[in-house]
């Protein structure tokens, strides 16, 4: 509005007349504007004072100032509608200027402030959202915890009983209580598996036997998942009782309950959880309650349903295991008692046996002395009697007495020995002895009897047989003597051969001795002795009885001399004590028989030889035994060999003649030659020669001993030599010691067949 | 060289013969047979062996040269050679003879000829060795010493 200054009163007149309608409206508006402008700050101050937090106080002041000034401006404007003095105009102007300044300042300030204010607002919104979220989560946790609590409680209730019925009933009750259900029902499959039968309900005490077919679609739906499924209240399983409420029935939920078949249950065998049948649990919320199934409630139901049978199952399982443990415990107690009883009985038996043994030993000790004394008397006096002058008849009688008493003495000894062997009180003595001499002894003892019966006796000792062995010499000799004695006793004619070798492990795989598997070691070896005879033989069926005491085969009893029947039994005892084995083979009556035994003997250590009783012929020293000019003849077509053999024999003190061929040999041989050594390597000359020599010398005593020298380790060679009647066989190469031994042997025994 | 050294040399040489397998235990036995009554026993027997072997080798040559080889005869000769070589302890000759005999059984002429060469070779070797040994012995005896007793200690 522009003003026209009047000249006289220095007043300013408004352009428009004061009573125009427009001006009137302006006047009113200005008035109200001023009013509003003055009241806004008041309101602001009031509310700011109220609020505790307002960070922009001085902005408010600024704003207030601005408003106030605006109000003032408009107020002052009221005066400008009529004629007014210059002062008013000036105040008006000042007010306007001030307003302008403040409002500009405020405007500038607001540029900074408004974004801040806005952000405060957003933060407030964010916090509110956060709070809402936390609230929700709290709610969830709380519901979960509640569910867990309910499950635990239910589990506790369920576990407190093993009875299935109680469990199920308890479950329903607890569920009903927890979830405040109107009704809770359990449908169990029938035996046929084609229907579900109402088994338990919460409210109804005695459920009527409703059944529904199992293959309803709704039931299939529930069974096909392990979740709780909302079902319609109108479906058959939910329509349990007449609808009483006015409005809608409550929501119904159904869930499957896996049934573990208890018939699959075995004590140590937890069957797999694959189940075959389900029961159906139906839960109904109260009608007219507008309640809805919440997720956490459904979860609770699912968990409970899953656990019911398992808990029951577990419980039963534990009890079953406990029962089986109890059964086992009882069993072991019973067994222990039995063992105690048996122990007592055994103890008693043992004591009784010991008493018996003592009694028997006492008896034997007494009898030993008592029996032997008269025997000795008889034998001694009979021998003495034999020395005196007797008639032929008397002599015969005395001889018989002697023979009988000797036999009786042997029998007594045998019995006593055997009884000591039986109860294990016999112990082997261990000495170092000469094995060779044992065999020689036996030979010496048996030879007279053998030659009387015209049985030829041969002994073969293997070259690797130790000369000395550690063991019980007396009993080994007794065994060999017994066996050889039997061979001689039961052979009417023919030959008996004794072979002694070191048993090699391979030979142990004998089918005849299946359980016998000895292991030779560095300090022990196994001596194998085999006695062949061409005598009366034994029926193979009788062989097992031979080792039995006092048993005799019929053939023996009727023919030949009577044996006490103890000999072989004793032999077996001795052999067993020497950790060995003895057995007999025979192809039958009249076909001869072979007795073989293996015993374990020790190998003597070299340093201990000083303790030995030296056998007269000790190998390995350089003393040349002089054979005193013994006349020998050497036949060999090989010049070198001939020389060597001759040198050998010369060295041993023999008087040696040599022949380069059979003819020459026959020419020069004479009764003076005690031994003929002939080489049989070359063809049949040797054998032919042997026969010719034997023909030449009619009487056996006159002719020289014929010994073959051969490099053939061949049974055939040996058999041929024996066949043509040679007295011996030596394997080349011959060492000095060997030759010495051979000569001694030959001269002593007139026989030597080196073992092949 | 004094006697002691010569004796030691003899011992070492003899030992080497055993270690290399030219001689075996039988040779020792021969040495044992040598005593006052038979002072030259070993030399005599070995000389006999040389003569015998040379004869046999000649015979073998002849027999194998034939058109139709008489293996029986060849075998007989080898057998003889084997016998004598084993008697004096000429181990390698003996082993060669054993191999020879196997091929004789097979009637394999080429193999027999090869074996004959082998036997000849071994024989020559052992002959040289023994002659050397005897020379040593003669030297020892000439120097007034005595031949030590060999003990097979290995």
From TrEMBL, chain A:
Coiled coil: none annotated. The modification 4-aspartylphosphate is found at residue 679. It is a multi-pass membrane protein. Binds 1 copper ion per dimer. Keywords: ATP-binding, Copper, Disulfide bond, Endoplasmic reticulum, Ethylene signaling pathway, Kinase, Membrane, Metal-binding, Nucleotide-binding, Phosphoprotein, Receptor, Transferase, Transmembrane, Transmembrane helix, Two-component regulatory system. Its cofactor is Cu cation. Residues 366-603 form the Histidine kinase domain. It is found in: Endoplasmic reticulum membrane. It comes from the Eukaryota. Cu cation binds at residues 70, 74. The chain crosses the membrane at residues 25-46, 58-76, 88-114. There is a cross-link at residue 732 (Glycyl lysine isopeptide (Lys-Gly) (interchain with G-Cter in ubiquitin)). One of its GO terms (cellular component) is endoplasmic reticulum membrane. Residues 631-747 form the Response regulatory domain. GO terms for molecular function: ATP binding; ethylene binding; ethylene receptor activity; metal ion binding; phosphorelay sensor kinase activity. InterPro entries: CheY-like_superfamily (IPR011006), ETR (IPR014525), ETR1_N (IPR058544), GAF (IPR003018), GAF-like_dom_sf (IPR029016), HATPase_C_sf (IPR036890), HATPase_dom (IPR003594), His_kinase_dom (IPR005467). Belongs to the ethylene receptor family. This is Ethylene receptor. The lineage of its organism: Eukaryota, Viridiplantae, Streptophyta, Embryophyta, Tracheophyta.
């Amino acid at each position: 509005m522009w003003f026209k200054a009047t000249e006289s009163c220095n007043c300013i007149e408004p352009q428009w007349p004061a009573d125009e309608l427009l001006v009137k409206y302006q006047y009113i508006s200005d008035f109200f504007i001023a009013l509003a402008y003055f009241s806004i700050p008041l309101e602001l101050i009031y509310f700011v004072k109220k609020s505790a937090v307002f960070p922009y106080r001085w902005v408010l002041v600024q704003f207030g100032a601005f408003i106030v000034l605006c109000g003032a401006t408009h107020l002052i404007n009221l005066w400008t509608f009529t004629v007014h003095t210059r002062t008013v105009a000036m105040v008006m102007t000042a007010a306007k200027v001030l307003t302008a300044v403040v409002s500009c300042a405020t405007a500038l300030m607001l540029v900074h402030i408004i974004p801040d204010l806005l952000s405060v607002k957003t933060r407030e919104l964010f916090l509110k959202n956060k709070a809402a979220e936390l609230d929700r989560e709290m709610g969830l946790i709380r519901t979960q915890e509640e569910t867990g609590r309910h499950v635990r409680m239910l589990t506790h209730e369920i576990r407190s009983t093993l009875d299935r019925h109680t469990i199920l009933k308890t479950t329903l009750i607890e569920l009903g209580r927890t979830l405040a259900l109107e009704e809770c029902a359990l449908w169990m499959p029938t035996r046929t598996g084609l229907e579900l039968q109402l088994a338990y309900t919460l409210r109804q005490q005695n459920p009527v036997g409703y059944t529904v077919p199992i293959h309803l679609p709704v039931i299939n739906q529930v069974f096909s998942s392990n979740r709780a499924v909302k079902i319609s209240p109108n479906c058959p399983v939910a329509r349990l009782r007449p609808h009483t409420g006015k409005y809608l029935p409550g929501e119904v939920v159904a869930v499957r309950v896996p049934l573990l078949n208890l018939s699959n249950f075995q004590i140590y065998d937890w069957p797999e959880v694959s189940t075959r049948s389900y029961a159906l649990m139906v839960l109904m919320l109260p009608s007219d309650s507008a309640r809805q199934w919440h997720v956490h409630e459904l979860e609770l139901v699912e968990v409970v349903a899953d656990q019911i049978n398992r808990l029951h199952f577990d419980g039963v399982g534990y009890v079953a295991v406990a029962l089986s443990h109890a059964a086992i415990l009882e069993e072991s107690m019973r067994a222990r008692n039995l063992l105690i009883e048996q122990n007592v009985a055994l103890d008693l038996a043992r004591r009784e046996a010991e008493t018996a043994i003592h009694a028997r030993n006492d008896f034997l000790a007494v009898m030993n002395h008592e029996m032997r004394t008269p025997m000795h008397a008889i034998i001694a006096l009979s021998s003495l009697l034999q020395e005196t002058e007797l008639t032929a008849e008397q002599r015969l009688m005395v001889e018989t007495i002697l023979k009988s008493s000797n036999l009786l003495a042997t029998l007594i000894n045998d019995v006593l020995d055997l009884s000591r062997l039986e109860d294990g009180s016999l112990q082997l003595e261990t000495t170092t002895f000469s094995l060779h001499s044992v065999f020689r002894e036996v030979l010496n003892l048996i030879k007279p009897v053998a030659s009387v019966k015209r049985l030829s006796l041969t002994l073969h000792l293997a070259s690797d047989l130790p000369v000395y062995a550690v063991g019980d010499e007396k009993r080994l000799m007794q065994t060999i003597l017994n066996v050889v004695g039997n061979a001689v006793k039961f052979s009417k004619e023919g030959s008996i051969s004794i072979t002694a070798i070191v048993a090699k492990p391979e030979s142990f795989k004998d089918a005849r001795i299946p359980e016998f598997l000895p292991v030779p070691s560095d300090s022990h070896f196994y001596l194998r002795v085999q006695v062949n005879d061409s005598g009366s033989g034994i029926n193979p069926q009788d062989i097992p009885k031979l080792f039995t005491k006092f048993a005799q085969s019929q053939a023996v009893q009727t023919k030949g001399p009577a044996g006490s029947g103890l000999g072989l039994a004793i032999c077996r005892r001795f052999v067993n004590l020497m950790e060995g084995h003895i057995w007999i083979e025979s192809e039958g009556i009249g076909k001869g028989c072979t007795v073989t035994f293996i015993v374990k003997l020790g190998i003597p250590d070299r340093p201990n030889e000083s303790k030995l009783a030296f056998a007269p012929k000790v190998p390995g020293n350089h003393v040349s035994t002089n054979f005193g000019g013994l006349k020998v003849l050497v036949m060999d077509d090989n010049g070198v060999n001939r020389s060597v053999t001759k040198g050998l024999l010369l060295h041993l003190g023999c008087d040696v003649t040599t022949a380069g061929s059979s003819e020459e040999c026959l020419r020069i041989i004479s009764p003076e030659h005690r031994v003929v050594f002939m080489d049989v390597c070359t063809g049949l000359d040797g054998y032919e020669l042997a026969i010719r020599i034997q023909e030449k010398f009619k009487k056996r005593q006159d002719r020289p001993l014929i010994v073959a020298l051969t490099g053939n380790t061949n049974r055939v060679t040996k058999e041929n030599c024996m066949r043509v009647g040679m007295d011996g066989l030596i394997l080349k190469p011959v060492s000095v010691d060997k030759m010495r031994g051979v000569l001694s042997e030959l001269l002593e025994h007139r026989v030597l067949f080196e073992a092949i | 060289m004094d006697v002691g050294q010569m004796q030691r040399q003899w011992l070492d040489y003899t030992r080497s013969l055993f270690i290399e397998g030219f001689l075996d235990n039988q040779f020792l036995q021969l040495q044992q047979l040598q005593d006052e009554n038979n002072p030259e026993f070993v030399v005599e027997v070995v000389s006999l062996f040389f003569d015998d072997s040379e004869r046999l080798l000649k015979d073998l040559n002849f027999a194998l040269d034939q058109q139709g080889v008489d293996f029986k005869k060849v075998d007989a000769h080898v057998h003889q050679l084997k016998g004598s070589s084993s008697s004096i302890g000429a181990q390698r000759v003996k082993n060669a003879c054993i191999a020879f005999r196997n091929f004789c059984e097979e009637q394999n002429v080429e193999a027999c000829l090869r074996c004959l060469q082998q036997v000849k070779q071994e024989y020559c070797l052992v002959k040289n060795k023994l002659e050397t040994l005897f020379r040593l012995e003669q030297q020892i005896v000439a120097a007034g010493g005595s031949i030590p007793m060999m003990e097979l200690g290995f």
